[in-house]
Specification:
single chain; four-stranded antiparallel sheet; 5 helices; globular
Length: about 110
Amino acid sequence: MSKFEKELRRLGRSYFDITEFDVSLNDATRGDINRILDSGYAVFGLKMWDFRFLSPQELRNAGNFSVDFIFLEKDRPTVEKLIEDYKARKIAVEAFIKKLCDLAIYDCWWV
């Protein structure tokens, strides 16, 4: 279970009723990202809509809203192709986001 999920339970909240006042959830998200980095997996981050790729060094102690997804490095070509297809309007936004969510090893929940 992720730190985010543990903190959500501790607060007695659901994904649907968290707010910017639940600051500890951002700290939990940051902790989850750092835990992934500490695991030794080769990963990268993606900031949505400007499609900025983030290195592991940029992900360490990430600021709120600075990254949206974490992927395994081996999946970078697939992510790049999905972005290319989305920009070329070969894939609808809903399908694009679903595929990214399915491929990501972590979806960053910032509140």
